[in-house]
Design brief:
Strand content: 25-35%
Number of helices: 10
Radius of gyration: 21 Å
Mean pLDDT: 96
Oligomer: single chain
Distance between the termini: 35 Å
Low-confidence stretches: none
Order of helices and strands: HHEEEEEEEHEHEEEHEHEEHEHEEHH
Shape: globular
Amino acid sequence: MSVRINPKALEMIQDFSNAKGPSGFEDEAVAVARKYASDIATIKEDCLRNLYMYRKKNTSGKPVFMLDAHSDEVGFMVHSIKPCGTLRFVPLGGWNAGALPSSKVWVRNAKGQYIPGIIAAKPVHFMTAAEKANGAQEISDLVIDIGATSDREAVEAFHIRIGEPIVSAVDFEYDAEHDLMIGKGFDCRIGCAALIETLQRLEDENLAVDVVGVLSSQEEVGERGAKVAVNTVRPQIALCFEGCPADDTFTDDYAIQTALKKGPMLRFMDKSIICSPRYQRFALDLAQSRGLAVQSSVREGGGNNGAIINTSLDGIPSIVAGVPVRYIHSHYGITSYYDFEATVQLAVEIVKAMSREIIESM
C-alpha cells in the first residue's frame, strides 16, 4: 500500500499531536489550528476555547454544513500535594488505569512551565500479599512524582499548585517506511488535522452549502464544547471527525470493523447516537461510487459529539468519520497517514456533493 505524503499536512498532524491540551486547557491545540487555518478561514473563538473557522467563500444564503472535531485530549489535573511531595491527580476523560504506572507525564506549574513527572504506584517490594494478588490499581491509588521531597518543596521549588493540567510526555514520530504515526492525542487531534486539510481543499470550490469548521472543546468530559458550538453555528447538516479505537489487534477476523489502513470508519451507532441512517447510506454509497476506502461499523460502546449535534435545534443530520487509531485513551496511539488521507478525501466529496435538496431528503 502506497500513499503520497503532503509534508505540510504531516507537519500539521505532528503539531496537533504534540500540543498539550487536555479538556479545559485546549489553548495549544487552538494555536496550532490558527497557524494552519488563518489563511483559508475567518476565525472566531469563544470562552470555552471552541474555535470557529468560517470558509471565506461562504455567502450566508446557503444551508450551513458544520465540520466538527474536538481539540481536547485525555489528561489529568493536579488534585492535591501529599506531605511527601508527590501529587494526587484526577483524570480528565477515561483512562485505562492499568496502563498508567511508570509512565512519564508533563505537569504544568504556576509559572506556566511543563515539568516532568512519573506516574508512580506502590513498589512491589512494599505491597502486601493481598495487594499483589489484586493486581490492577485504581487511579486514586497512584501519584505523580516530580522529585520533590516535601509538599513545601513542591510548592516553593517546583511551583506546583492544584488545578493545573497534566499531559502525556510523548513526542510524535512518523515511520515513513511502514506509514505509521505514533504519538499522543490522536483522539481527536488526527481529526482536527483532517478537518483543516478538508477546509484547505475546499477553499476554491463552488459549493451549494456554507461550510463552518469547529474545533470543539471538552469532548472527553461530556461533549461540553459541542453543546455551545452547535447553537452558535446553527447548522443544517454536520460531519464529525474522530480518532476512533481500532479493533484489528484483538477482535475475531469476522468482527473487525475499524482496521488500520482501510480508510475511515463510519459508525451506524454507538451508545450515544444512531447516526442519521439516510445520511450514513448516502456517504457510504458516495464512497463506493468514487472508489474511496471506507469502513462501516456498529459500535456497542463509545460516544462522540455527533450525539449532541444530532439532537440539537430541530434535529441535525449527523455522521461520524473516524480515523482508526490503535490504543486511544492511553499515552501512545498508532495511526496511519493513509487513513488520514482517505478520511479527508471522503469528507471533501461529501461536502462537494451536498445540496439543500439532499439535506431536506435526510
